[in-house]
Amino acid sequence: MRQLVSLESRAAAQQLIELLYGGGVDGDLRSTQDGKWSVWIIDDADLPRARELLEVVEQSPEDPRLTTLLENAQQMRQHETGAPKPSPAKTVSLRERWQAAAAPIPLGFATSALILVCVVVAFATRLSPAGPVVQALAIATTNLGLVEVADGQVWRLVTPIFLHFGFLHLIFNMLWLKDLGSMIEHRQSSPFLGFLVLVIAVSSNFAQYLASSPAFGGMSGVVYGLFGYAWIRGRFDVQSGLFVAKNTAVFLLVWLVICFAGIVGQVANTAHVVGLITGAGWGYLASGHWKQALIRR
């Protein structure tokens, strides 16, 4: 027997049990010490199928297969017990749960502020890799070490994220920042997003400096960090409300590989990878899944 997922709502967990049952997977519902409801798969051999069905629920809440599976479960229960069918309103509650999670999210305050700063800096630098503004915001002005940071200009560990050196570079990053930043900010808070961006920025910028030189900039490392956080947190903690569609994850990972291949020119690949690792690691730790894994051992 293996745990599939833990949910806040008993009703939602019970609906998931019914959906799994309609798909040929027997599940069990248990309460947890923290007040949640965990869904367990009775036969370990059914776990891949259960995960596949859960993924359909998370990524495609309007998939007609969900309705079919729930109807199958109702018919099977009725055949076994002779009980009347549950009301239609209750059978869609699980779908409505993930539909709400996938609904359009308004632009958050912190996300808007980050976008605004990037746009203002882009106008000030004219998207050029040189000039006084770039010198003031770069992590360092020479290859001789982080002299300015050591002298107290610690903001330089963060400010390279606001530098962009091309229109497409700027637009690409701002569109992803709008979607990912707003989702995290809406599900958690503006201060949390700000702190998350700060940690990802410092780690990815410092790593990129060590790997190359001070001549880099862009929000891409942060974008990959936000993606990693939302993707992993959402996969291991459904209740977080964070969700990254499979095609989105595939696109960003493929783009990461393309950048490494050098097809799109010189890119801060180290910042991308370190940002992704930082965000994904934070997301996994925040999900609490590692605690459940230790308990099962």
Return residue spans where pLDDT drops below 50 for at least 5 consecutive residues.
83-93
Strand order of the largest sheet: 1-3-2
Give the CATH level 1 class of the largest domain: Mainly Alpha
Report the CATH superfamily of the largest domain: Rhomboid-like
What class, by secondary structure content?
A: mainly alpha
DSSP E strands, number: 3
Number of domains: 2
Percent of residues in helical segments? Answer: 55-70%
Secondary-structure element order, N to C: EHEEHHHHHHHHHHHHH
CATH topology of the largest domain: Rhomboid-like fold
What is the CATH architecture assignment of the largest domain?
Up-down Bundle
Number of helices: 14
β-strand amount = 5-15%
Major β-sheet annotation: 3 strands, antiparallel
Radius of gyration: 23 Å
Estimate the mean pLDDT confidence.
Answer: 84
> How far apart, in Å, are the first and last alpha carbons?
13 Å
- Gross geometry: elongated
Structural features, described:
Strands 1-3-2 form a three-stranded antiparallel β-sheet, with helices on one face. Helix 6 runs antiparallel to helix 9 (167-187) and helix 11 runs parallel beside helix 13. The two termini are 13 Å apart. The radius of gyration is 23 Å and the shape is elongated. It has helices at residues 10-22, 47-59, 64-81, 88-91, 93-101, 109-125, 132-137, 147-150, 167-187, 190-211, 220-236, 246-261, 269-287, 289-296; strands at residues 2-7, 27-31, 37-41. It has 14 helices and three strands. Strand 2 and strand 3 (37-41) form a beta hairpin. It has two domains: 2-101, Alpha-Beta Plaits, CATH 3.30.70.1530; 109-290, Up-down Bundle (Rhomboid-like fold). With 297 residues, the protein is mostly helical.
